[in-house]
Amino acid sequence: MENNVIIIGGGLAGCEAAYQMAKRGIHVNLYEMKPSKFSPAHNNNDLAEIVCSNSFKSNLITNACGLLKQELRILGSLLIKIADETSVPAGQALAVDREEFSKKVTQKLSKYENINIIREEVTKIPENENIVIATGPLTSEKLAEKISKITGVDKLYFYDAAAPIIEKDSINMDIAFWGDRYGKGDASYINLPMNKKEYEKFYNELVNAEVINLHDFEKKEIFEGCMPIEVMAKRGIDTLRFGPLKPVGFIDKRTNKRPYAIVQLRQDNKEGTIFNMVGFQTNLKFGEQKRVFSLIPGLENAEFVKYGVMHRNTYINSTILLDNTYNLKKNPNIYFAGQITGVEGYVESIASGMVVGINIANKILNKPKVIFPKFTMIGSLADYISTENKKFQPMNANFGILPKLENKIKDKKEKYEKYAKRSLEYLNGFEFLS
Description:
This protein is of the alpha/beta class. The protein is about 30% helix and about 15% strand. It folds into 2 domains: about 5-155 and about 315-430, FAD/NAD(P)-binding domain (3-Layer(bba) Sandwich); about 165-310, Elongation Factor Tu (Ef-tu), domain 3, CATH 2.40.30.260. The two termini are about 20 Å apart.
């Protein structure tokens, strides 16, 4: 059937995509390999299993993920609706009863006449049919090989070792300075100099900070190329000064001398609104990252749009492979959704599934593509993962990827309120064929 779509993966993204297509009259075959086969992180037979925290993060629209949830509510997301219905007390956050959430998603999709749930593993990708690959960050080895083949990329990224990312406007430029080592290049790095006392305080806090425990299947994959900075530091107090914090070739403008150590920040998006910490792959707990890295001079008021992570992950280089509807550029029949695209987080995965579901339905029904405005969080995520970026790494919703406000606002709460108001105004004024 021409209006038949295959979805591989019954996680958050696959389920949202299935619902968005089904309610538009498109028949969906939703493949989920559980219960015949489980990934190392899954143990529940239901669809849309929540495997880590049960929190969908803040509900406040002055929080980037809160704004994204509000956009999804406006757009009619099934999974956010069910998350609201199965919520448990969590202050300003949306947290769910994970068992009830997955159970309710499964019941809803099982009863939908346009959705056929097939419980078996998919190891082949039919390239001539409309298909959504939503297999998540733990895609099976066999399917990963097939994905490499259809994308034309020799291998996927199999280990996510990412450094923290910071809002540029939150960096103290009275301390930080632009420049490249020995004055070469085009001064594209932001540099944060440290004297001996500052470095030793930072070092001592770093080596004693709390880390996240990895799963057994993840521990096997740590290698020298992505060693956590806290592990490197434990090899000796000067190890970082001969590695990622090497000060050679720089002058601290405060002293006109070479700094004792230096932290470099590298631009992470085309607009230059967010910067990543070079060499700071880390497995520290998020709160510890905020505490310890804020000790670095110039980052005392840093806003972290993404914390560093180190875990088993599978994702494609979407920036060169996908367009801003998550469609594979080389094959208009194939779409990707969820964490395999490089969006990170529950709500972000749901958002990608919604974009994919709407666009495949429109394609089959001969309606125009739906490209959400970059001023919205759902649109900015789609734009981020489809804009070429040589340093691409998984990204969650954050205000740093939205276009800048016309007027600079120092107060953080006021600034985020302006972002949220602008996003919702754009979304409410955005018309597309449903």
